[in-house]
Request: fold
Amino acid sequence: MWIITVYSEKNIQMFEFDNQAEARATYNSIKGCKVLSEVIYYNDFNIVEIQ
Reply:
C-alpha cells in the first residue's frame, strides 16, 4: 500500500493507493509539501523478502 501525506497551513490530508505507479503519478501532480510512503504489513508475505 502507498500513502501520500499532504501538509498545508490548516490541515493534513492522506491518500491511499494500491500500487506504486498510481501513487507516483498523483504525487507528481500535487503541489506543496508532501510525502510518499510505502506501508508494508507483517502479513504481506508476497512483498517481504525472506533472507
Remarks:
- The mean pLDDT is 87.
- The longest helix spans residues 20-29.
- Helices lie at 20-29.
- Residues 17 and 23 are 6 Å apart (CA to CA).
